[in-house]
Design a protein that fits this description.
The complex is a heterodimer of chains A (336) and B (389).
Chain A: E1 2-5, H1 6-20, E2 24-28, H2 44-48, E3 53-55, H3 60-72, E4 76-80, H4 91-98, H5 101-104, E5 114-119, H6 134-138, E6 144-147, H7 151-163, E7 168-173, E8 180-183, E9 199-202, E10 207-211, H8 215-228, E11 233-237, E12 240-242, H9 246-256, E13 259-266, H10 271-283, E14 292-296, H11 307-310, H12 314-325
Parallel strand pairs in A: 2-3, 2-4, 4-5, 5-7, 6-7, 10-11, 10-13, 13-14
Antiparallel strand pairs in A: 1-8, 6-12, 9-11
Chain B: H1 56-81, H2 95-102, E1 110-112, H3 118-124, H4 128-136, H5 145-148, H6 159-174, E2 180-185, H7 192-204, E3 208-214, E4 217-218, E5 221-222, H8 223-226, E6 242-246, H9 250-265, E7 271-276, H10 295-302, H11 306-316, H12 322-344, H13 364-378
Helix pairs in contact in B: 1-2, 1-3, 1-11, 1-12, 2-3, 2-9, 4-12, 6-7
Classes of the chains: A alpha/beta (336), B alpha/beta (389).
Chain lengths: 336, 389
């Protein structure tokens, strides 16, 4: 067991994949001698060579489009999109090619491509550096979408993503890159929790709180704070956003009867809406109150002096917990 | 199988110069032509050597392939009109560009086509039913791409140029001497992906050939809407050598393609070929070119018809005997008959096939929807419950 930062944990996972499979290649902007703008690929080009850790031209569609060709040739490309807001030039290649190739060729051609995306806000950046675009991709059939919340998962799930024969969007919470945690580097991938499974990270009995990526830590903190008031919150780290592991969420909601979902992305058409609808369909009779969404607003990601208002924090989540419980909350007395 | 007899795998032993062909970045607008529209063989000091192995029999087999794919095209168009195909993108007029380029390839080369390269599919060894079934709507793919080293038809314009470049980067990593060829049209040269593909190909010196069939029309938009310079002038800005060839001259197309493939194999990097040809038909069977195209332009190009031109060359050489004509006709008839029967006899997909192969491993969302839809379908087979509404 070693103590690693989030970024080092991903680095260690990438290193292991590069060591174990000669078909793994890394591609991206500035990932070579610089080690990426967040240093996630630090040292990998030096150790594995420029042919396996490839500094690409500044063209996101080009990165993903050439990864499709490399996958056709039998490679397992791991592409880094430098920032969440830079992924859109690659949107067509991801949605029309990466996601559909397996279906189009009825399984003849696999797309074992991993697309790493630092995402989310909280780092005081200018425009396009703090977005949460995951719902565009969870809405796209053919992709697997995951968001990691801690160094151990970051280490394990990057290797699982690379080993997956299906394309995986791997969202990394960039504001957590420097958080440290225990990482068991000897963990056997075959016995680790599968990539498409959610995890209950705090058990509780009054409210189910669903989070992923950067907000898992916030949600756990909120659960601790709620406990001080005698409220027992069960926190679920979704890990997989497509598919969502509904059986785990269902089991929790059947127990608690209340559901709060939180994400940084805007509310309308977001993942929270999908989870609220699905859980309502699947366990309507167990629900004691309407599902609550605590999310970013339906605005462009704001300039950094305002981002603390946009991002769900501990207090906003607790306000949502109160709403789910029918306790006094900021919307008490409001109709609709 | 008739399609297995397509003349593939024998033409690539080009007796070109021993080392990688040195072609300069082009500066002028010269059009490489080895056969004039009147069927006259034009000698060329640099390119003749690339087609000197093409003897009488070889010429006749090129004529056969071009005639057969024109027949496939006509039969498929008829099948669409009869409601047997949902759509068909005709290749009429582009036979020399498609046969000349595809017959320059080796079996181990990999090809990334657009949606119009049915002639290339025929040469690569796709079965006729495989060519038809995408357009009948029976499958989202035709052939197994890894069986004949030909990707499935690409509908997003220019997208495949990046796939070809990435594949070529993989070839480099493998240390193989395989070449990769991407087909696209004049309209695609405006797409970001084609330009990004040229950036990547030049940057890594990937063994890829960009084969652009300039057929002058992107649905209703003439090529001048796409570019104010000749298309072959564009790649030079990326540092990619290019050739502008008469795309209706099968020998010129072969010579240029062989040069480009040879460069790729020998580590010379990417090459761009603009094959100047003409889309004599509509964009697809859903299109009506009379709304935007001057019929006189069509007449001008009909006079430069690629098959007519090769016939004239064969006639001048005394090769177009009754025997050859009869053989080619009988082959074309047989291929058309097989295309028709294999199309009409094709089994429909099953309803639950809609859920198959989205992922390579079971996916909980899809499994659930498949299960629910299966129950829904089964509900039609069960008697309504007593008293139910």
């Amino acid at each position: 067991m070693s103590k690693l930062t989030f970024a080092r944990a991903i680095n260690a996972g990438l290193r292991k994949s590069l060591e174990n499979d000669p078909k793994v290649v890394l591609m991206g902007e500035d990932i070579g001698s610089l080690g990426g703008v967040f240093r996630v690929t630090d040292g990998l080009q030096k150790d594995f060579g420029k042919h396996r850790v490839i500094d690409s031209p500044l063209a996101e569609s080009g990165i993903i489009g050439t990864a499709v060709g490399l996958a056709y040739r039998g490679y397992r490309p791991v592409c880094e999109i430098q920032f969440d807001g830079f992924i859109y030039p690659a949107f067509d290649q991801i949605v029309s090619q990466v996601a559909k190739m397996h279906y189009r060729t009825q399984g003849r051609v696999k797309m074992p491509i991993t697309i790493r995306v630092p995402f989310g806000g909280g780092i005081g950046s200018p425009e396009h550096h703090s977005e949460s675009p995951e719902a565009y991709f969870t809405h796209t059939s053919g992709l697997r979408v995951v968001a990691v919340s801690n160094p151990q998962d970051a280490y394990t799930m990057i290797q699982q993503a690379i080993a997956s024969d299906d394309p995986v969007l791997y969202f990394e919470p960039k504001r957590r890159y420097h958080d440290k945690g225990d990482v068991d580097e000897t963990l056997d991938l075959s016995t680790a929790l599968p990539l498409d499974k959610a995890a209950v990270v705090s058990t509780g009995s009054d409210v189910t709180l669903v989070a992923y990526g950067p907000l898992v830590k916030t949600a756990k903190d909120a659960a601790l704070a709620a406990a001080d008031e005698g409220i027992s919150v069960e926190v679920i780290d979704l890990r997989s956003l497509a598919p969502v592991d509904y059986p785990v969420v269902e089991a929790s909601v059947r127990k608690t009867g209340r559901l709060v979902i939180t994400h940084e992305a805007g509310q309308s058409g977001g993942l929270g809406a999908e989870i609220a609808a699905s859980i309502t369909e699947r366990c309507f009779h167990y629900l004691e109150s309407a599902p609550v969404r605590i999310t970013g607003f339906d605005v462009p990601y704001p300039y950094s002096k305002l981002e603390m208002h946009h991002l769900p924090d501990l207090d906003r989540i607790l306000d949502g917990v109160d709403r789910a419980l029918g306790r006094h909350n900021s919307l008490s007395g409001l109709e609709g | 199988m008739l399609t297995d007899q397509a003349g593939k795998g024998v033409d690539h032993h080009a007796p070109g110069p021993g080392k990688s062909a040195q072609i300069p970045l082009r500066t002028g607008g010269d059009l490489l032509q080895l056969v004039s529209p009147d069927g006259e063989r034009i000698s060329h000091p640099e390119f003749d050597i690339w087609v000197k192995d093409i003897g009488d029999e070889h010429l006749c087999s090129l004529y056969e392939d071009m005639t057969v794919i024109r027949r496939i095209d006509a039969e498929a168009t008829a099948l669409q009109r009869q409601g047997e195909l949902a759509l068909w993108p005709p290749l009429l007029g582009q036979e020399a560009a498609q046969i000349g380029s595809s017959r320059s390839l080796r079996d181990d080369d990999f090809v990334f086509p657009s949606y119009r390269e049915s002639g290339v599919a025929y040469v690569r060894g796709a079965h006729l039913s495989e060519i038809a079934r995408v357009w009948r709507g029976n499958a989202s793919y035709g052939w197994d791409p890894l069986r004949i080293n030909l990707a499935t038809p690409q509908i997003i314009i220019g997208s495949q140029s990046l796939h070809a470049t990435g594949y070529a980067m993989g070839v480099q990593l493998d240390g193989a001497n395989t070449a990769v060829l991407a087909y696209f049209g004049d309209g695609a040269t405006s797409e970001g992906d084609v330009n990004e593909a040229m950036v990547f190909a030049a940057s890594y010196q990937a063994p890829v050939v960009f084969f652009c069939q300039n057929n002058h029309w992107a649905i209703s938009e003439p090529v001048r809407v796409q570019s104010h310079v000749q298309l072959a002038d564009r790649p030079t800005g990326f540092g990619i050598p290019s050739m502008r060839v008469d795309g209706n001259d099968v020998l010129a197309v072969m010579a240029a393609t062989r040069v480009a493939l040879d460069r790729a194999r020998k580590g010379g990097g990417p090459t761009f070929i603009e094959a100047v040809t003409y889309r004599m038909g509509p964009h697809t069977t859903a299109d009506d070119p009379t709304r935007y195209r001057d019929p006189i332009e069509l007449e001008d190009w009909a006079a430069k018809d690629p098959i007519l031109r090769l016939r004239k060359l064969l006639e001048a050489k005394g090769l177009l005997t009754d025997d050859v004509e009869a053989r080619v006709k009988s082959k074309a008839d047989a291929v058309a008959a097989e295309l028709r029967s294999s199309c009409i006899d094709m089994p429909d997909p099953q309803p639950l096939d809609v859920f198959n192969h989205v992922y390579s491993t079971p996916n909980s969302w899809i499994e659930r929807q498949k299960h629910h839809y299966s129950r829904y379908l089964n509900s039609f087979n069960q008697p309504a419950e007593e008293g139910a509404l």
